[in-house]
Design goal:
- The protein is α/β, with parallel strands linked by helices and about 190 residues long.
- It contains six helices and seven strands; from the N terminus they run βαβαββαββαβαα.
- One of its GO terms (biological process) is nucleotide metabolic process.
Length: about 190
């Protein structure tokens, strides 16, 4: 019996691989998309997350014709302000200053392209409350380095989990991939593990 189309994960995130494994989905290969993630002028956080997820999926689908391609992008926003993926201490300090003592939104866009070219997307929005951070908490978190490469400068599954006062929505989405919605996309477009 011939194998069906492969599932390609268009992400280098080990967290997304771990989340998929939790629900019994193992991509056949990982092929990260390297795209410009700069927000467009006047782009809302919702549109930004969906656009990036779909763009990543399309870039990888062009390299993997006939396969399923799954991509996601997670955006942290305070109001309409999209926070960066923290790469420097200045980035994380900027993010923590905006997040401290406030609620914010974590939006994860998910895109799936089927072997026949059909595409489907989902957006999951989660409201997250952050405690007011003391200087010692902020400095300790910065020193930990756990913020590197994370949207909004934090990962809920690490030390920053202790800063979360409230989470309304999808915990896996805040980590990087909403599992319920992802499984529905996969089954809806005909993926069978």
């Amino acid at each position: 019996m011939a194998a069906g189309p492969a599932l390609v994960l268009a992400s280098a995130s080990p967290r997304r691989l771990d989340l998929l494994a939790q629900v019994g989905v193992t991509p056949d290969r990982v092929d990260p998309a390297d795209i410009d993630e700069t927000p467009l002028r006047d782009e809302t956080p919702r549109r930004h997350a969906l656009r990036l997820a779909l763009e990543k999926a399309r870039v990888v689908a062009a390299r993997a014709p006939g396969d399923f391609v799954l991509a996601a992008d997670t955006v942290v926003a305070v109001g309409r302000r999209i926070l960066p993926k923290a790469e420097t201490e200045a980035d994380v300090l900027y993010c923590l200053k905006l997040l401290s003592g406030r609620n914010h939104k974590v939006l994860t866009g998910v895109a799936l392209i089927a072997p026949d070219g059909r595409a489907a997307t989902r957006l999951v929005e989660t409201k997250v409350g952050f405690k007011r951070l003391s200087d010692a908490e902020r400095d300790g978190y910065v020193a930990s380095g756990q913020w590197r490469g994370k949207a909004g400068g934090y990962g809920v599954q690490g030390l920053a989990g202790g800063f979360i006062t409230d989470l309304q929505g999808s915990y896996p989405s805040v980590v990087g991939l909403p599992l319920y919605e992802t499984l529905n996309l996969l089954s809806g477009l005909g993926y069978r593990p």
